[in-house]
Design brief:
The chain has helices at residues 20-34, 47-54, 70-79, 97-105, 118-163, 169-177, 201-207, 210-230, 256-280, 315-326, 336-342, and strands at residues 12-16, 37-41, 58-62, 88-92, 110-113, 187-198, 234-239, 242-247, 288-303, 308-313, 332-335, 346-354, 363-371. The protein is of the alpha/beta class. It folds into two domains: 12-142, 3-Layer(aba) Sandwich (Rossmann fold), CATH 3.40.50; 184-371, Nucleotide cyclase, GGDEF domain (Alpha-Beta Plaits), CATH 3.30.70.1230.
Length: 373
């Protein structure tokens, strides 16, 4: 049995004494002059139940009672959750040093000759009550700290389990280390956007069973999302067979463009393994085209109070989509801004001016051939 939660409603005194007149005298002091709640237990065998019901601040325990003596009852009270930590003042008609020493050894907090002077009794009750509540406050503070730590660990587990499937370990660590977690809310930021999708996927779906389509997508998207995370990017979303990833949000790196280009190169190289698994599972071989764009977009919480997502919005998202659509299977096309930000470690062919659907005027793009480490 565990002790019930204690309340903060002032001093409560439990007297355990078989003499009614003692109860009257002590009650007059506690109720009348101290202004505390008073409870008198006349039956020592009911003392444990009364302690659990009353939740006293202080227990006054008589040494000599029928059926059970005060020292034996003191042992029982110290073993009971409801009274284990409650200050106990022993009341005795005489002072025997050996008995007094035993009482303290068994856990008594004080020992007085009954009945003490009124002022002395009030002073002792107030002293032990303050000490008791200070101990409870300290315990409550510790329990609150433990509960706070438990909630923090549960939050961290949730973040790791939820976001760890989509974000890199570095991004997840940033979420956990930030006092407010992931800061949501629109802000302008320069990022590199990667969009990749399969060529001929729609007609391919018509020839496959639904389970085969899902198996093919899981094989492909699983490999690609792992590579995005390993390069410090964030998978913004999967759109059918398309992967939309962002480098630079929510975590910014000075080399986000180079990371995005390196990720695209790694993704194309990984297609050999994807197709090997497809072939082993009786699925068709697939090809992927990738587009890269860099520029200022709005990143933040998109949606409503009921349902929202962390994403990117802006013209460069649309531009990247158009560049990706222009790439053939196995090809990586990047905007001029991406190649410029990525630096001279990118090997490329170009520049080439192309007309992209939905984009006014010609656009300069480069075909990425590789990237130096």
């Amino acid at each position: 049995m565990t002790a019930p939660a204690r309340t903060r409603r002032g001093i409560s005194v439990l007297l355990i004494d078989d003499q009614p007149m003692i109860g009257v005298a002590v009650g007059r002091v506690v109720d009348g002059e101290l202004g505390a709640r008073f409870h008198h237990c006349l039956e020592p065998m009911h003392a444990l139940a009364d302690a659990e019901r009353v939740q006293p601040s202080v227990i006054l325990l008589d040494m000599v009672m029928p059926d059970v003596d005060g020292l034996t009852l003191l042992r029982y009270l110290r073993a009971a959750p409801a009274a284990r930590d409650v200050p106990i003042v022993m009341l005795s008609s005489e002072v025997d040093p050996a008995i007094k020493a035993e009482a303290f050894a068994l856990g008594a907090n004080d020992y007085v000759v009954k009945l003490p002077d009124t002022l002395e009794l009030i002073a002792r009750i107030r002293y032990h009550s303050r000490a008791h509540h200070s101990a409870l406050d300290a315990r409550d503070a510790w329990e609150a700290l433990v509960e706070s730590q438990r909630q923090l660990e549960a939050r961290n587990r949730f973040i790791r389990q939820t976001f760890g499937r989509y974000l890199s370990d570095e991004v997840v660590a940033g979420l956990l280390e930030s006092p407010t977690g992931l800061h949501l809310g629109g802000e302008a930021r320069r990022v590199t956007i990667l969009m990749a999708d399969l060529r001929g996927f729609t007609p391919m779906c018509e020839a496959l069973a639904p389970a085969q389509v899902v198996a093919l997508l899981n094989n492909y998207l699983g490999a690609m999302s792992d590579l995005v995370a390993s390069h410090g990017g964030t998978v913004d979303e999967f759109i059918g067979d398309a992967v939309l990833a962002v480098f630079g949000a929510p975590i910014h790196h000075d080399d986000d463009a180079r990371r995005g280009v390196a990720c695209a190169v790694a993704m194309q190289r990984a297609m050999a393994g994807v197709n090997a698994r497809n072939t082993a599972a009786g699925l068709p071989v697939v090809e992927m085209g990738i587009g890269l764009g860099t520029g200022e977009v709005v990143v933040g919480n998109i949606g409503s109070e009921r349902r929202a997502k962390y994403g990117v919005v802006g013209g460069h998202v649309n531009l990247t989509s158009r560049i990706a659509a222009h790439a053939v299977g196995g090809q990586i096309l990047a905007s001029e801004a991406t190649v410029g930000d990525a630096g001279d470690r990118v090997r490329h062919r170009g520049p080439t001016r192309v007309a992209l659907k939905g984009v006014t005027g010609p656009v300069i793009i480069y075909e990425v051939l590789g990237v130096e480490p």
